UniProtKB/TrEMBL annotation:
This is UNC93-like protein. Pfam families: UNC-93 (PF05978). InterPro entries: Ion_channel_UNC-93, MFS_trans_sf, UNC-93_regulatory. CDD domains: MFS_unc93A_like. Its main location: membrane. GO terms for molecular function: potassium channel regulator activity. The chain crosses the membrane at residues 20-38, 58-78, 85-106, 112-132, 153-176, 216-238, 308-330, 342-360, 366-384, 405-423, 429-448. It comes from the Eukaryota. It comes from Potamilus streckersoni.
Amino acid sequence: MSEQNDSEPTMDPPMSKRQILKNLIILSSSFLFLFTAFQSSQNLQSSLNKAEGLGTVTLSTVYAASVLSGLLLPPLIIHHLGCKWSLVLSMPCYILYMAANFYPVWGTMLPASVLLGVGAAPLWAAKCTYLTQIGTWYAKLTNTDRDDAINRFFGVFFMMFQTSQIWGNLVSSAVFSLRKNNTTVDETVIINCGAKYCPTEDYNNTNLDRPDLDKIYTVCGVYLASAVIGCLTVVFLLDQIALDKNKERDRKPGRHGGDSVRMLWEIVKHWKDSRYQKLLIPLTVYSGIEQAFFAGDFTKSFVSCTIGIWNVGYVMIAYGVTNASCSLLFGRLVHYVGHVPFFVLALIVHGGTQITLLIWKPDPEMTSIFYILACLWGTGDAVIQTQINAFYGYLFTDKPETAFASYRIFESAGFIMSFGYSSFLCTDIKIYVCLAFLVVGMAQYAVVEISHRRSDVKTARRKM
């Protein structure tokens, strides 16, 4: 099976350049509002809902449901509803999860988490398909390289998307910083923070105490409103796009006709036939593991434990600003230097940061270190998010719905693992797991890159 379809879509782009750029901004803005709510809430789950591991277990449930959803729903829903209405169908699942946080118990959070997970896979697959399609159209209209256009579109998207870390965390920190007291924590308690922190131990650390209920309600209300705005933005402002009719005619009748088993077979066949997909599994899983570790373990084991939950948002803002800036910058620079230097950068930055976390003893008097580490993690994550998404779009242009559904499944597997063991393993073990997936994932990415370049050279020689 060919790993890449080198031919351009035969249909003429149905949008002007201005319309394409408008839809890029609208789509990015809708995700900005939606994930201002979800990502900021996710960052706080391990600290706010730590009793019985409610926060991290329900987050693991979100991504487990996302995996099951990704096996069956994305190609089917996108085919029948199109990208726009697939997004509209999925976004209310996030809204209900935000509402469940007003009364966070197992009976509300678990069903909401399952529903969110079901909606997440079609949401992200539709987004990636939409960006890849309009990026391809833009390349054709401007007579530029398709890979470059797709990279730029993903760079713009993730630049705007990652600023959600700024606004949502600014809300949480501004509200939670209005504390009734400023009691300090004994040094004998602080020494157990960082890599040494174990969630099964009771350290009697007042930094981890839950904020007042009225403050939690205020934060949840802002997040709920933001999620609703994100959904309405898609409903009223985003244009629907049609699938390539030539490709649709090439498919067998009934292939997308309500038979979920056929949809599952499409994804399984993609895994079976695509050597590149197999090799990219560890790096794709790492994408989920590193995000979950930073949101669930760094925020609790290092930030909340050492300098208090009210500082989580401020540290995450530094992460968000860096991530957003680098996403935009890297999306543009990849045209000049290619994918490889950025993946090497991610290996060095994330690898070095994780080793630092293993040996560093957090000190509440050295708050700048927390911000530096957050910025470094944001730099590496910007590479992981923009480059892997764009790399998938470039390698698997012939079946983007199936490829991006596969991407979400393996990324979700990383979230499931990380959030699933978050309440049981000590932080140092979690860091070792991150490092292992990072090293193996980057090594296998290198194999894909080398193999793909050799394939391009052979193809070029045959055409001469």
